[in-house]
Amino acid sequence: MTGLIITFAQQKGGAGKTTVAAHVAIACALGGRSVALLDTDPQGSLGQWFERREASLGAAHADLLFRTASGWGARREARALARDHDVVVLDTPPKSDLELRPSLEAANLVAIPVQPAPIDLWATEPTLAMVDNVGTRAILILNRVIRGTLLGTEIAREIAAMGHPVATTELGSRVAFAASMGEGKTVMETQPSSFAAAEIRELTVEVLVQAARGAQRKEAPPSAPRVREVVAAAGGRR
């Protein structure tokens, strides 16, 4: 068994990375998958949420395994967890390349939440450059979207032009997300029939599909060189 590793990354703080990571993890768990959370952010926001979850639901009903790691240890820990879980979700720090790179390398998919604002768009470019450098598949997720605004439409168009898949599902700017996190839960548990919960379920399906494609790409053997290239390298003719 080798599970999917999904790393949530964004070098700009306040993009909703931890909230989206926790919600996708719980959506996977509620869908019957075994899920592990790996917090690599020294701020420990995901860990604080998990502690509230255990206090509220009891350790036996938290539905997740939780671990922490940092630096190069994140890659090793993520791969170890993937041997025993269907899905491993990593939350990362908005920090330097050295801290983030191992989490990107371990991932089958890097999920990047982006708010529809110019400063968030600019901050996403270094993260995408790092993803391209390590060769991991990525998906951009529009978060805290206020629908019907001209700015939001323009930013969405610019994000779509950045050369990476963009999730069809957008997450609205909803108080329910933050409120549920404060209880150690998610909107699928506090408001299961809400638009917010539906958005998360739909987004999770997209994320899992993209992660599976990323896993296939990593497992595929390198393509064989063309015959002419082999012959040329050997100094012969064909």
Structure description:
The protein is α/β, with parallel strands linked by helices. It has one domain (4-233): 3-Layer(aba) Sandwich (Rossmann fold), CATH 3.40.50.300. Helix content is 50%, strand content 13%. It contains ten helices and six strands, in the order βαβαβαβαβαβααααα. It has helices at 17-30, 45-57, 72-82, 97-106, 118-134, 150-160, 175-182, 187-190, 195-219, 227-233; strands at 4-8, 35-39, 65-68, 87-91, 109-114, 138-142. A six-stranded parallel β-sheet has the order 3-2-4-1-5-6, sandwiched between helices. Helix 1 (17-30) packs across helix 9 (195-219) and helix 3 runs parallel beside helix 4 (97-106). The radius of gyration is 19 Å and the shape is globular.
Query: Are there runs of 5+ residues with pLDDT below 50, and where?
Result: 223-238
Helices and strands, in order, run as EHEHEHEHEHEHHHHH
What is the count of distinct domains? 1
Mean pLDDT reading:
87
Reading side by side through the largest sheet, how are the strands ordered? 3-2-4-1-5-6
Q: For this structure, what is the CATH class?
A: Alpha Beta
Shape: globular
Kindly report how far apart the N and C termini lie: 45 Å
Number of helices: 10
Say how many strands there are: 6
The CATH superfamily name is P-loop containing nucleotide triphosphate hydrolases
Structural class: alpha/beta
Strand content: 5-15%
Helix content: 40-55%
Short characterization:
The chain is an alpha/beta fold and 238 residues long.
Main attributes of the structure:
single chain, 238 residues, alpha/beta, Rossmann fold, 10 helices
